[in-house]
Amino acid sequence: MWRPTGPEELALVEASGWTAWPPRLPEQPIFYPVLNEDYAVRIARDWNVPASGAGYVTRFEVDAGFLERYPVRRAGGETILELWVPAEELAEFNRHIVGRIEVVREFHAPA
């Protein structure tokens, strides 16, 4: 799985020891991991960078059996696929992460 993220969320992931996503804010009722790196890159580069000056693409694994409870959602084109994890289920989702969350790409606003 991949997750595009900005610097504030990434700092919280780092504080967890790279093992968990932080709780959602009240205005964030859904956690959206995505299913392909290209989609994650587009969000990190085209949305996170303008919004916060930097965007990161993270990669992580989740127990496949656990993920079966979340249908794949198409959020646009054929490759724009994501899962919708309700905020109240994020702690359980985190318990099913296998290994560590890692940063695989990063983008920064021009200096």
Describe it for me?
- With 111 residues, this protein is α+β, with helices and mostly antiparallel strands.
- It contains four helices and seven strands; from the N terminus they run βαβαβαβββαβ.
- Strand 4 (73-74) and strand 5 form a beta hairpin.
- The longest helix has 16 residues, at 37-52.
- The chain is globular, with a radius of gyration of 13 Å.
SSE arrangement:
Blueprint: E1 2-5, H1 7-15, E2 30-31, H2 37-52, E3 54-62, H3 64-67, E4 73-74, E5 81-82, E6 85-86, H4 90-95, E7 97-108
Antiparallel strand pairs: 1-3, 2-6, 3-7, 4-5
Features:
two-stranded antiparallel ribbon, alpha+beta, 7 strands, 32% helix, three-stranded antiparallel sheet, 111 residues, 30% strand, globular, single chain
Radius of gyration: 13 Å
Secondary structure class reads alpha+beta
Query: What is the succession of H and E elements?
Result: EHEHEHEEEHE
Give the strand order of the largest sheet, numbering strands 1, 2, ... along the chain. Answer: 1-3-7
Would you report the number of β strands? 7
Low-confidence stretches: none
Mean pLDDT: 95
- DSSP helix count? 4
- The CA-CA distance between the termini, in Å, is 31 Å
- What does the largest sheet look like? 3 strands, antiparallel
> Multimeric state of these chains?
single chain
